[in-house]
Amino acid sequence: MNMTKGMWQRLALGAAAALLAGSVNAQTATLATDAAGTTYNAVGSGMAKVITAGSKLRVIVRPFGGPDAYLDQLNNNELNFAALSGSTAYLSYNGKNRAKKAYKNLRLLRSGAGGLKVGFIALKDSSITKVSDLRGKRVASDYGGHAVIGRSIAAALASAGLTWKDVKPVPVTGANDGVTALDAGRVDACWASLGQPVIRQLNAAKGVRYLSFVKTDQSLAMLRKMIFPGVKLETVKKNPSIGVQDDIYMITYDAYMVTNKDVPDAVVGQALEGLWAKTDELVKIHRGLSGFTHESAVTEIPMVPYHPAAIAFYKAKGLWTKEAEMANNKF
Description:
The protein is α/β, with parallel strands linked by helices. The chain has helices spanning 5-25, 39-54, 67-75, 86-93, 147-159, 175-184, 197-205, 217-226, 265-277, 279-285, 308-316, 322-329; strands at residues 28-33, 58-63, 81-85, 106-123, 138-142, 168-172, 190-193, 208-210, 232-236, 248-260. Helices cover 40% and strands 21% of the residues.
């Protein structure tokens, strides 16, 4: 069939219009996480999955060695979202990180209650059953990509009357590297989160034991002072299949999905709509997401301010309280 010049022009204009519509209706966003095999990679991947399924926003996961490796990009609006702990958010926003740099452009989108439980692990058959048993032992240290882990370990040791001088520090790079060192026999204990995929693998192969903290008003006050104000100590029931050999106390704090203050309201709204619509699926993806219920989306003790579009979203859902407003206005 012969086509006139006018017909070609009309087809070209139609194709251009279709492409433009596609760019509007199928926006793409990035979500930063920790490295593959970590709890926060699983948490962020779950968030990306349900947002993509429940909205017009396509979210691509970008794994990094830890928050310290991506926070500059997030603060500069070169990344759209991130999955991280309330403790990391607090330290980063307030410049209490290794770089001594305050990331004031971080904004909270959604909170998950008790989304992370952390503490020490050792091999099940070792003589180490409680934190005070770490005296003189080799303990994974540094965790270059995670400023909060070093602070957490120091606080955890202090809660048992120990300091770094009472153990033998063995530097590692990331959250998974401590577990790898434990598996290889280079350390006797390392820091870990409950449900961390690489720990499940090690537990199946050799058996691990999560160590219990002592829960007193004094120990909790010390942990909050040395780590950050949002720390809690919660009971975790015996479950050998995941390395919990007895009822224990573990450190816990909220998990967050955060963004940059300049991410457009429409993009934030799409992300929140996707999470909201697929919450029933979200909380089943990973243990670290179990606290991301509708009721926990708004925390009254936020470690960073909420994004304005998130505030509007939660007001429309009837979740934004006077207490949340007062807490947010303190920033």
